Amino acid sequence: MAPPRTKAKVTTIQSWCHRVSSHTMTRSSSTRGEPLMAQSRPSHDKLYDQLLPIYDLYRTALMNRKYYGGQLRQYQRWNKSLECCLAFGTSSAIAAWALFRTESGQYAWAVISAGATAVAVLKPILGLSKTVERYGKLWVGHNNLYLDLDQIVSDIRVSHDLTDDSAKGFRRARERYKQLALDDDPHPNGRILLRHFDEVQREIPPTSLWMPAPTIDPPSPWPQPESKGSQPRPTSIGDPDDAKPSA
After folding, report:
1. Mean pLDDT per segment of 10 residues, for the chain of length 247 residues?
2. What is the pLDDT of residue 21?
3. What is the pLDDT of residue 113?
4. CB burial readout 144-170, b (16+ within 10 A) else e
5. What is the pLDDT of residue 44?
6. Smallest Cα–Cα separation from 138: which of 42, 71, 217?
7. d(CA 71, CA 91)
8. Which of 19, 36, 143, 212 is the most exposed place for a label (fewest CB within 10 A)?
9. What is the structure's pLDDT at 63?
10. Helix axes 46-89, 190-203, angle to 10 degrees
11. pTM for the complete prediction?
12. What's the N-to-C CA distance of the chain in angstroms?
């Protein structure tokens, strides 16, 4: 599931964490949380480049879990409501109630029966049961994916490094994400995505994710100003006797 964009419709599956975090990632508390600005990060910092896609997928998995969990609950309510209407309108026991034996009750029951018939015809066409099943699989998949990535992120936070086991676990998680993306909504609800995007920003801010300290070459020292009354420095190195005044 792609991150929400306020000025463009979300129609593709893409990564999103790096847009928010690449300029605001900080080191751990042991390094005083100094910002790692993109312009200060050297190109040879491989660990930095390896951690970004992990944190990207970690936060994306949480957003997808929230999105498909909400969609699953919504469609389950709709499906259950239609099933209740269908069961109520086709029940002969309810039709035998004294309430529906009166003249007005018979008209009311005729309307209820007509509505139940319409629901019975439309329910297979709407395919709510299949949608509920698909959202259920997506929620389970993204939930498991998030839990696995959360363990990887916890290991990175403790070890301050990307171990071989964590790297292998991330590669497996990335392949699972690709498989889940095949069943993603082609046109997700941008308003709902934006709400979950903001929730993820609050729950997992970029500053909470450990990043290595930047390796920056120290700048060359500034030239020291000469104090007043000091002798001018020689412009070349030669024989010290050459600098003595002639008699």
Report:
1. 49 38 39 37 67 94 96 89 78 68 76 78 80 94 96 93 93 95 89 94 92 65 55 50 50
2. 41
3. 78
4. ebbebbeebbeebeeeeebeeebeebb
5. 40
6. 71
7. 30
8. 19
9. 96
10. 130
11. 0.65
12. 89
- Name the residue type at position 103: E
User: What's the CA gap between 142 and 96, in Å, rounded?
Assistant: 48
Taking phi over 0 as left and psi of -120 to 50 as alpha, with beta for the rest, 160 belongs to left
Q: What is the pLDDT of residue 121?
A: 77
Distances in whole angstroms, Cα of residue 130 to Cα of each of 62, 135, 137, 180, 240: 24, 9, 11, 16, 95
Neighbours of 2 (CB within 10 A): 20
Structural tokens at position 48: 């930095």
Q: What six digits make up the tokens of 170? A: 């991330």
Please state at what angle helix 46-89 crosses helix 164-181, rounded to 10 degrees: 40
**Count of beta carbons in the 10 Å neighbourhood of residue 201:** 14
DSSP string, the chain: -PPP-TTS---S----HHHHHTTT-B--GGGTT-B--GGGS-TT-HHHHHHHHHHHHHHHHHHHHHHHHHHHHHHHHHHHHHHHHHHHHT-HHHHTSGGGTSHHHHHHHHHHHHHHHHHHHHHHHHTHHHHHHHHHHHHHHHHHHHHHHHHHHHHHHHHSS--HHHHHHHHHHHHHHHHHHTTS-SS--HHHHHHHHHHHHHHS-GGGSB-PPP--PPPPPPPPPPPTTPPPPPSS---GGGGSPP-
Q: Which amino acid is at 33?
A: G
Tell me what pLDDT residue 194 has.
93
pLDDT attached to residue 1? 67
